[in-house]
Amino acid sequence: xxxxxxxxxxxxxxxxxxxxxxxxxxxxxxxxxxxxxxxxxxxxxxxxxxxxxxxxxxxxxxxxxxxxxxxxxxxxxxxxxxxxxxxxxxxxxxxxxxxxxxxxxxxxxxxxxxxxxxxxxxxxxxxxxxxxxxxxxxxxxxxxxxxxxxxxxxxxxxxxxxxxxxxxxxxxxxxxxxxxxxxxxxxxxxxxxxxxxxxxxxxxxxxxxxxxxxxxxxxxxxxxxxxxxxxxxxxxxxxxxxxxxxxxxxxxxxxxxxxxxxxxxxxxxxxxxxxxxxxxxxxxxxxxxxxxxxxxxxxx
Length: 300
Hints:
Alpha-Beta Plaits; 6-stranded mixed β-sheet; 4-stranded antiparallel β-sheet; 10 helices; about 30% strand
């Protein structure tokens, strides 16, 4: 497969702030690619330059083999963009909104109605967009970005403001898009979302890519300790520390948490002592990788 997106030494500054700093990566055709990072890391700015919405200060971008800037009309029917902040035509219903977008691309009204159903908005079809909840507006924005069946889809925080059930339903929809051969580029704050959906992820901070690989490879490379949670009352902290292979023990809300890099040894010891009832085992996650690279401090 060829590259759907090629980015080389991309840079963008706002005054003294270096929002994007010498970023380079490729996204293969049909790949589900994630861009992860804290607030202000440069994710949205990078996406907007690839989409042709913002002019880079330096570097080159090829989107489906063509430069997106200056604004390239030939690319518009081939890409779908869901922005972080939804903007709709005023005083239109959800159905009128997506029908209007569909007509701009020569897409039939029936196809637009099908997309309303796919994002669960049939019962809100006659509701004006300003009366939709935040989550409903987000789903309508995604449907509008996909109604013309684009080759490459850009989704900027697509599941923000969605409840857990709506998020899971949207994951299924996005997985289906990718399975059909479309290239999807996603920014998200949800590490579980990236682990489930993305073939590869780039973790960015301060405008630079810190790591780029598959979620599984990033987790393996971290060599994070396994966390084994033992139900309350099973054993004391001193007894847990005495088990071979246990590095440290903390008391959590659901019991004692044993950290180890030898989970098989520890679980075998717990089995011998008949302390396996209610045991929970958690290996390293993409969130562990993210926090190890970007830090744990809160960023507004």
